[in-house]
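Onboarding guide, step 5: your first structure request.
Type a short instruction followed by the sequence, for example:

Predict the 3D structure of this protein.
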Amino acid sequence: MAQITVYTTQSCSLCNAAKALLGARGLEYQEINLARDDSGRAELVSRTGMMTFPQVLVGDTLVGGFQETQAAVSDGRFDQLLAS
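The system replies with structure tokens like these:
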């Protein structure tokens, strides 16, 4: 199964929603909290081209923020990414 990475920041309701969505499915993920990590934020932009939170990746594939992750879970794309 591919590694799930969730980039988050403090006091982010959509970050909490994304983590709850993954947790409700019993999925383990690595959380990278970038609240006070300027170099980590630069890495996020380099990896995803995005600077919004959350950002969910499966392996090296960007799923997106909460809404994109929820849609991918709903239509089965998330499971396909995990299996690849």
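Each response can be followed by summary notes, for example: The CA atoms of residues 1 and 82 lie 5 Å apart.
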